[in-house]
Amino acid sequence: MKIKKSILAIMSLTIVFAFVGCKDKENLKSSLNTPDKINIYAEGNQKQITNLSVSSSKVNSNSVAIESKKIASTDKIVVIEDHALENIIRKAVSKPNGALFVSNLSNILELDGSKQNIKNLNGLENLINLKKLNLSDNQISDITPLKNLTNLKELILINDNIKNLNAITSLTKLEKLSIGNYRRGREYWNTFTDLTPLKNLSKLKELNLACSNVQLNGLRYLTSLENLNLYFNDSLSDINELSNLKNLRVLNISYTNVNNIKPLANLTKLTDLDIGNSKVTDISVLYKLTGLKKLTAWNIIKDKDYAALKKVLPNYDIIYKQK
User: Which residues, if any, are the signal sequence (predicted)?
Assistant: First the structure.
C-alpha cells in the first residue's frame, strides 16, 4: 500500500491493525509521532493495517510514502488443552487472560502442578527453558509432551499413572527423577515396567522408583547415581544391574523380593542401606561395606548378627528390630 503526500513538519499518525489468524481477533491501536520511517510490530501472527489517518500542522504538497509489509515472527499462540494445566501456567506467567505465546512460556523455569487433577499435558512442550517440574498426584498417563523439555534438571511424577517412559529418553540434563508411587493399592501403580528409556540419563544422581512394578534393565548405565529408592517393589528380586553403580551412596530395597545382595559388594561409597523386610538371608556382604553409616534391616538380622557386625564395624548405626 502506498500513499504519497509531502510533509514539512512532524506528522502524527494513528494506525489501527488487526492480528490475522488470531483466535480472538484482537485489535491493537498505535499512535506515533515521528518524522522518520515507521516500523510496526507486535508479537505473534501476521499484521494487517486496517485504518490510517494522517494529520499535520503544515502540509505543502503531495509526497508522503508509507509502505506496509509482513514481519516474520517465530512467536505463536499456544493452546493448552487441559484447563487445570492452563491455570497453573497462567499463574506462572501472571497472565490470567488473553492469548498465551511461546515467548510467555519460555520464561518459566519452575512449575508446580501437583494435586491439580491434570490429565492432559499437550501444550506443555512449549516450556522449553523449564528446569524443574512437579506433576505429582494427578491423572496423567501420557507424558509424550515432556520430550521437548530438554533443559529439565528435576522431574517429579509421583502418584500418577504413567504408561511408559519413552519421553524421558531425551531429557539428558536430568539430575533428579521421581516416578514412584506412594498411594496404597496396586490399582494405582504405574503401568510401565521397562526402564531402558532411562539409560541415556548420564547426569542422573537421584532416582525414586518406590512402589513401582519394574525390573532394573538399563540401570547399569546410570553411573552418576547417588541415591536410589526401590522401596516396596514386590516384583523386584534381581539387583545385578546395580553392581556397576560405584557412586551410589543411598540405596533402599526394603519390602522387595530381593534375596541376594552380593551385587552390592563393590559399592564402597554406600553410606545408607535399607534392606528391611526383604528376602535377604545371606548378609556376609555387609562386612565389606565399610563406608556404611546407617543400616536398616528390619526382620533380616538377628541379635547375634547385630553383635558380630558391631564388633567388626563399630561405626554402623544398625536398625534391625521392627518397632
Answer: 1-20
Question: Which residues, including other chains, have CB under 8 Å from residue 307's CB and lie 6 or more apart?
Answer: none
In whole angstroms, what is the distance from residue 119 CA to residue 170 CA? 22
Pick the more confident residue, 48 or 202: 202
pLDDT, the chain, mean:
81
Write down the residue that cell numbers 538380622 correspond to. Answer: 301
Q: How far apart are CA 252 and CA 249, in angstroms?
A: 10
Give the DSSP letter string of 33-65. EESS------SSSEEEEEEEEEE-S---BS---
Q: Residue 91 above 90 pLDDT?
A: yes
Which amino acid appears at position 40 of this protein?
I
Task: Go through the domains of the chain in sequence order and give each one's CATH number.
Answer: 1-73 (no CATH), 74-225 (3.80.10.10), 226-240+250-323 (3.80.10.10)
pLDDT at position 95, please? 97
pLDDT of residue 214: 84
pLDDT at 75: 86
Q: Locate 256 and state its grid cell.
A: 522387595
| Cα dihedral: 160, 166, 167, 170 (round 10) | 140
Q: Contact at 8 Å (CB) between 275 and 257?
A: no
Which residues have CB under 8 Å from 313's CB, separation 6+?
286, 287, 290, 292
**What gap in Å lies between CA 43 and CA 102, rounded to an integer?**
10
- pLDDT at site 188: 52
Is residue 204 within 8 Å of 220, Cβ to Cβ?
no
